[in-house]
Write a structure and sequence with these properties.
Elements (H helix, E strand, L loop, with lengths): L1 H62 L8 H29 L4 H25 L2 H16 L5 H31 L4 H27 L1 H9 L4 H40 L1 H14 L5 H40 L1
Length: 329
């Protein structure tokens, strides 16, 4: 009897171990599937937010420019710290909206898209309404401020950091809103993983690149002082290319505003979305159809973005004018 009981016990233990092994295997497969889903969702979200990222990079590089060379990296680190705090506010807020007011995701995306388009049109308007002489005067004023020991550069840096953090908050909100729209239908745990991952990767990526961009001219200058003629040539090339890089980033960022913002608005209005899709599908029948399909689809998104941004800008200017006239009475 004792032997039979022992064999029965051993058989039960073996069965339990088989069950545990089976459940572990199933759990591992599910974990792998979840990890793949998170990876896929993160990749899709990163692709959709890449346009905003380009503008975020250009704007932040411009925001922290103008400080003394030895203070550039500390200023970038201060803005990066503020950016992480922004994300700590925005990510839980986005998750709460997704959990308790999922209907608000699309309207928030539409607002974010309209703001992107408005910001893009405002940048274009500023560029056309202000002459190169105005920009040169502002640059000279900044250079004189840096050279004048009477100027409180600590206060100047604080203003720069505060302005950059405010800009980061707006652009981070757009990135989080676009990401939330991508993962809105996913389980809550995957939403947490994707939003947190995007927040960390975007912040490290943007401010790591910003730090590299603002120190490019220093790198170029250091290379020009080396003994090697090749290093000197490379240094001169970097010094010459640095301003052009900033201009290219600005153009890419502005273009991305219209592409991303217009795309969000188009997707938010089903009739408009189907019309754009139909026109892009028609273009796919032309020679080199795939290329035309992409160009027509993105081109229509950009045009719609420009029109929407112009409308928002007109409304903002009208409101400002009405407020100004009412304040004078």
């Amino acid at each position: 009897m004792a032997g039979a009981s022992l064999l029965t016990l051993l058989d039960d233990i073996a069965t339990i171990l088989d069950d545990v092994a089976l459940m572990t295997k199933v759990a591992a497969k599910k974990s792998a599937v979840i990890a793949d889903d998170v990876s896929l969702l993160t990749k899709v979200a990163a692709q959709k937010t890449a346009g905003v990222l380009g503008d975020d990079l250009a704007l932040n590089a411009q925001q922290v420019s103008g400080v003394r060379a030895e203070r550039e990296i500390p200023v970038v680190l201060a803005v990066a710290k503020g950016s992480f705090i922004n994300k700590l506010i925005l990510v839980p807020t986005a998750l709460l909206i997704s959990a308790f007011a999922p209907w608000a995701v699309t309207p928030l995306l539409m607002v974010g898209g309209a703001f992107l388009c408005f910001e893009g049109v405002e940048k274009l308007a500023h560029r056309f309404l202000h002459s190169p002489e105005d920009a040169a005067a502002a640059h000279n004023s900044l250079a004189q401020a840096n050279a004048d020991p009477a100027i409180d550069l600590v206060a100047f840096e604080k203003d720069k950091v505060k302005g950059a953090i405010r800009t980061d908050f707006i652009l981070s909100a757009e990135i989080i809103a676009i990401t939330l729209g991508t993962v809105a239908a996913a389980p809550f745990a995957q939403q947490v993983a994707v939003l947190s991952g995007i927040a960390v990767v975007m912040t490290l990526g943007v401010y790591g690149l910003v730090a590299g961009i603002v120190k490019l001219d220093d790198l170029g200058l250091w290379l020009t002082q080396q003994a090697s003629s090749a290093a000197q040539s490379l240094g001169r090339g970097i010094v010459s290319a640095a301003p052009w890089l900033m201009k290219i980033l600005s153009v890419v960022g502005t273009t991305a505003m219209f592409l991303v913002g217009g795309g969000i608005l188009v997707h938010g209005v089903p009739a408009m979305h189907h019309t754009v899709e139909a026109m892009a599908a028609t273009a796919s029948q032309w020679p080199v159809g795939g290329l035309w399909q992409v160009l027509v689809g993105n081109g229509l998104n950009a045009v719609i973005g420009i029109v929407a941004g112009a409308v928002v800008l007109a409304v903002v200017l009208l409101v400002q004018r009405l407020r100004g006239s009412s304040a004078t009475h």
